[in-house]
Amino acid sequence: MATFVLVHGSWHDGTLWADVADRLTERGHEVHSPTIAGHGPGASRAVTHDDCVASITQYLDEHSLGDFVLVGHSFGGSVIARVAERLPDRVRRLVFLNAFVPVNGTSVLDNTPPAYQELFPQLAAQTTDDTVMLPFEVWREAFIGDADLARAEETYRLLTPEPLGPTVEKLDLTKFYSLTHIPRSYVLCGEDAALPPGDPDHGYLANARRLGVFRLVTLDGSHEVMFTNPALLATKLELAGRD
């Protein structure tokens, strides 16, 4: 059995992995789902990407975790890449779940389609704390299209504003791209329209190809399959995380 550390993406916090974590625990795995700094209800949004990474490494240290499968969803992909830079000998495997693998020297937002690059700063400029809240129509159509309307509305109420800062910081990932000894997997959800399907520059496969040698695991489901089919996702994370 394995130890899984599940790192969430934008607008999420660690509690939103609960259904997937329960399925993995039922299969005998040890599961941790920390919340990234600046995320979740009531958290200060005045954080940097370094703060996001430090919050996960601190959690791993406090729980004396080693030899774990480190899973990053969406924005969490940029976080786990930098966690691996800091703890390269403690990560058993990296698993990117429809996640960003930013080009070295770019920001997460740089690796999104132009529409998001324009929209996010505009939304943040309308707030007092430089945050972005995903519009419901984008959530419903692009992020959770495999849910009925009631489930889409229910899950949208679980989201919290995302700090813009960590998504626009340029990231030095030189060390990450040198860590070829850490196995990595990419889990690809086939009904995910959060990034344009088939986009050669901004799509999920463009991110996956940056990993070099990697294991590809596919499944039916949207960007938010942890809400719509947690049992299937748990099974696929097992496949992605095995030796």
Automatic annotation (TrEMBL):
AB hydrolase-1 domain boundaries: 4-234
GO molecular function: hydrolase activity
Keyword Hydrolase: yes
Keywords: Hydrolase
Name listed for the protein in its UniProt record: Alpha/beta fold hydrolase
Source organism: Amycolatopsis rhabdoformis
